[in-house]
Amino acid sequence: MQINMQHLVFKTSQVRERELEAAASLSVSPAQLMQRAAQSCLAALERQQPAPARVMILCGPGNNGGDGWVLARLASAAGYRVQVVATEPKTALAKQAATAWRQQQGSVEPLDKLDRTHLAEQDVIVDALLGTGLSRELDELYQCVVETLNDAKDFHKLWVLSIDCPTGLQSDTGVPMPVAVEADYTVTMVALKPGLLTGKAAHFTGHLELAELGIAPAFRQLEKPVATLIEQDEVMRLLPPRSRSSHKGQHGHVVIVGGNVGMSGAVILAGRAALRSGCGKVSVLTHPQSQQIVAMAQPELMVQSTAAEDQQAIQDFLKRADCVVLGPGLGDDKWGQRLTQAVLLSGRPMVVDADGLNLLSRHDEWWPAHEHLWLTPHPGEAGRLLGITTTEVEQDRWQAVQKLTAKSQAHVVLKGSGSLIAQAQSPRIRVCRRGTPALAVGGSGDVLSGIVGSLVAQKLPAEAILPCAVWLHAVAAEHAAKGGERGTLPSDLLEPLRKLVNP
């Protein structure tokens, strides 16, 4: 049976505890597994930096270092000019690999003598120091080596390949401990690990490649993934062509609630995104001073203002909605607070973002008592909801999104590089690896909340809404940023978004 491991995510402990068992079931020895790992790295090296490039391989004491020793022999045979810098190997496999390198007269320099002069003489640096499973901060030697490598990389334009995981990066959380190798390319073995996919990970891993080493079917039978990547095919299946006889009433009605004084742009962006992602009708409930601005900005939006005191009128207005998006430009003054209370009592399916989340964080009694709830916090908003700091959220994004789901019983996306999606009904997290730094600008979240609300109103399956919306948002941003990441505006996502929802 063919198993596709390219979209499945497993904890480091799962791989460590089961990879040899999986290999043994296929009559693959540990030495053969190490050989396959090194061959995968050589293939990546040959694609990116052809021989006779000068290659320095930094080998640590364990089996990650063993991969490096084997790679040294393979790369030398392939025509590379190879230099090994290493600590003494400690595992049996690493010792065997080191002996084989020395027997062919391969040179070795001690790791504690490494300096920028040595590094500057190379074209490629291979990081085979520690790999996965780092559970404490780097000691003084490794921290010094990592910092020296990163400095030399920037100054001398070195190309860096990390084996399995950049040294110093915690492979389950993606947090540097306290520093990590800034690789251009990482080949990770057997399965994708959580810490390589979210938060700061992309800065350290560079291009991430999975080498299954020929044991994927056996490993998959032994372990269940903790997360899955969102794939294009999955999203496209949710957006089939529409019936030629369809009408607007079949494609949902979203009400965007927000747009306090001076913040009308947020509801405009959210409303436009809801329209561009296929919603049949989009209304905006906004501040009296914003009503004319919103109406003039987008004629397709139906705009109503409210003074927030007329709770019954608000309830009557929201009864028309298939979904309410609460938060874009809402503010947290008296108007925003009164409006939030009224909306949360409406019982409508709801997306909560921005100041809607901030107000919920201060008023636990306002939480909606129904399951049709989607939350879209960035790390700062997530921290406020959980009563912790933004830094604590980023220290373990996986745990944070699970805690948010448990607290809210909602569908939750923790935004950021490698957005994470969790749902109370499922223990498995979804991961979006798509996106671009172009999204790091005010208004991007308003576009996402509009897309989410639109898909809720169009009655996509509840568990599919956030994966679909987050992927559309990320890929639309990639298209919008083709002319340059700096200066890309959230409104630039709207035309690519229209194309993506019409496959």
TrEMBL record:
Q: What reactions does this protein catalyze?
A: (6S)-NADPHX + ADP = AMP + phosphate + NADPH + H(+); (6R)-NADHX = (6S)-NADHX; (6R)-NADPHX = (6S)-NADPHX; (6S)-NADHX + ADP = AMP + phosphate + NADH + H(+)
Residue limits of the YjeF N-terminal domain? 15-221
Q: Which cofactor does it need?
A: Mg(2+); K(+)
Membrane in keyword set: no
Binding sites annotated in the UniProt record for K(+): N64, D127, T167
Q: Which SUPFAM superfamilies match?
A: Ribokinase-like, YjeF N-terminal domain-like
- Residues covered by the YjeF C-terminal domain: 231-503
Which residues of this UniProt protein bind (6S)-NADPHX? 63-67, 131-137, 142, 164, 266, 329, 378, 446
Q: Which keywords does UniProt give here? A: ATP-binding, Isomerase, Lyase, Metal-binding, Multifunctional enzyme, NAD, NADP, Nucleotide-binding, Potassium
The protein's GO terms of the molecular function aspect are: ADP-dependent NAD(P)H-hydrate dehydratase activity; ATP binding; metal ion binding; NAD(P)HX epimerase activity
Q: How is the cofactor bound?
A: Binds 1 potassium ion per subunit.
Which GO terms of type biological process are on file? metabolite repair; nicotinamide nucleotide metabolic process
Q: Name one Pfam family in it.
A: YjeF_N
The entry's family comment says: Belongs to the NnrE/AIBP family. Belongs to the NnrD/CARKD family.
Function text = Catalyzes the epimerization of the S- and R-forms of NAD(P)HX, a damaged form of NAD(P)H that is a result of enzymatic or heat-dependent hydration. This is a prerequisite for the S-specific NAD(P)H-hydrate dehydratase to allow the repair of both epimers of NAD(P)HX. Bifunctional enzyme that catalyzes the epimerization of the S- and R-forms of NAD(P)HX and the dehydration of the S-form of NAD(P)HX at the expense of ADP, which is converted to AMP. This allows the repair of both epimers of NAD(P)HX, a damaged form of NAD(P)H that is a result of enzymatic or heat-dependent hydration.
Q: How does it assemble?
A: Homotetramer.
Name-wise, this protein is Bifunctional NAD(P)H-hydrate repair enzyme
- Top-level taxonomy: Bacteria, Pseudomonadati, Pseudomonadota, Gammaproteobacteria, Alteromonadales
State the gene name recorded for this protein.
Answer: nnrE
